[in-house]
Amino acid sequence: MGPLPATLDRPAFEEAMDRGFTDFGETHAVVVIIGGKLVFERYGPEHGPDITCMSWSKAKSITHALAGLVVADGLLDVEAPADVPEWKSPGDPRGKITTDQLLRMSSGLSFAEVYEADQPSDTIAMLWGEGKDDVAHYAASRPLAHDRDSYWSYSSGTTNIVARILARRLDVYGKDFHDFMKARLFEPLGMTSPIPKFDAAGTFIGSSFCFATARDFARFGLLYLRDGQWEGRQILPSNWADYARIPTWQQDGVTDGAYGAHWWLGIGGKGSFSANGHEGQYTVVVPDLDMVFVRHGRTPTHQREDLKAWVTETINIFRSPAT
Hints:
By secondary structure, this protein is α+β, with helices and mostly antiparallel strands. Helices cover 33% and strands 14% of the residues.
């Protein structure tokens, strides 16, 4: 493990870590990479470097990387109408939706992204209810609620549509798609822990389910920090990390935060982008600090904004040299 920066305000950082492990429900892991080296890690009870963590929606950013690989193979044009069988009928307005619009959560599809069982929820129905055997079909069967590119709406359903598009372009499903993920993404990065989940139709549930250790999530973040390169090899298209962080238009009133293409923007300061997941999972890529900051845990919904503020504040300590 490399040293923390000599200029770091260590008391402030240690106090922030203590708060991080006591104030936000359960914190399972915090990992910090600077300059490509692991400089800090801390784990909660019954967790450690070899324990896999829940991804929740951090899997969406993994899906973004997989899309980049298929683009690199010349099998996908994100600006073309998406390859979705449910939208092929003549005159179906959904047939004009592009993969880019799906990646930017701007497709206009109706989808209730709700996590509470006592409220109408397409997310719960898709992952655990009527749609669980074919998550992409469930999501693709939703009607349009808005014109394309006219309304931003975060949707796990659109990610699962993208995951099936990738499988269709490659013509691989289930175990064969998993083998593609390992050979083209995980193994080149030395990620040995990822456990992606698939539905009965063989589609990667890219919205929500790819378990991995905190260290391996940090490796994934480092790939994007290095603009898709790993040890001198261009894993992703050279512009793919930049594509992830081009801001997507959002209508007035959105409070979730700025968004790119299956990556969130700004939580770690200007120029940062992050893979975020339900209950407080974060992989934050911070180019100006040459940093990847990872946090895993189980934080109650009512503390979500406080946790986000803690992530920002903790990263900012690295920008404020000790006095």
